[in-house]
What we know:
This protein is of the alpha/beta class. It has helices at 2-13, 17-28, 45-60, 78-84, 98-106, 134-146, 163-176, 186-196, 205-214, 230-245, 266-271, and strands at 33-36, 65-68, 151-155, 181-185, 217-223, 250-254, 277-281.
Amino acid sequence: VPDLMDHLRASYTNNLDFEYDDLFDQVKNAPILILDGISGGSITSWASEKLNQILNHRSNGRLPTVLTTSEDINALDPFIKSRINDSNLCSIVATDSRASIYEENSGVGAIPKELSKMDFETYNPKGRRGNSNLEPILESAKKYSQDPDGWLTLYSDNSGVGKTHLAIAIANYRKSVGDDVFFAFVPELMDELRSGFSPDNTINSSLMFERVKESELLILDDLGNEQDTDWSQKTIYHLLVYRHNHRLPTVITTRTDFSSIADRSAQASRIQDANIGQILNVKAPDYRMGRTRGR
Length: 295
C-alpha cells in the first residue's frame, strides 16, 4: 500500500493526468485487488482519502479484495475499520495467536469451571418434583449431541430447569470428540465485545466476533437477557443471521418466548425456522429450590 500511494502521488503531482487516472481506475476496478500492509500509522491525508475512495468503490461493487495488516483493526482508519467489521462484506482471518491468547486470559469461549462437570450422566430428569417433560428433553439433547445438525433451542420461562446443564452436556460431549466449541453467556459476551471497541482497549473485538461466528459449535446461554441496546441487538442479529445462513450448529438457552406474538423480531424468525432447528419447551419446577444444579 505505501508503494502504491507513492506511485499515485507522483503521477498526480507531476501533472501526468492520463497516467494517474489510468492507474487509479485500474486499481479501483481490478478483478481481484490485494492491498498488502494496510496501516493506521503514518499516512498522509491525501493517501488516506485515495485509499478510502478505492475501498468505497470496491465495497459498493462487492469486488473481490484482500487486505493484510499487522495492526489491531481498531487502530485503523474508521472508514476502513467499518468495512472490515461489516460481516456481510468481509471475513477476517487471524494468522497469529492473539485471539486464542485472549480467550485463555479472559475465559471467553470456555465453559466456566464451576459448570464444567455438567454432562448427561449428572443430569437427573427423575429428581424433579411436579409435572415435567425432562426425560424426552434429555433424549432429544443426547440425540443432537451425536449429530449436531442445525440449531437446538432450550426454552423455559423458569430458571433452574436444567437448560444450561443440557447445553453444557452437549458441549462437553462434542469437545470430547474433538469439536471446536465456543460457550458464551450472552450478557457477558456482549460486554466483552463492546469493551473491545474502546479506543484504549487492546482486545481485538473483530477477531473475537469472527471466532464466535465461525465456531464449529456455538452455545449461546441466556439469550434475551442481555442489555437491550441497539448495538447489542444489531450484534446478535448479525451473529444469528451468519450462523443461520451457513447452517452452523448452535445451541441456545433462553427464557424469552420467541414464538410469542409480541416478539416478531428478525432474531425470532431465525430461531423459529423449523428448516434449521427445533425449540424444546422445558417444563419443570426450579431445581435449585431443592438442590443446586445447572440453570
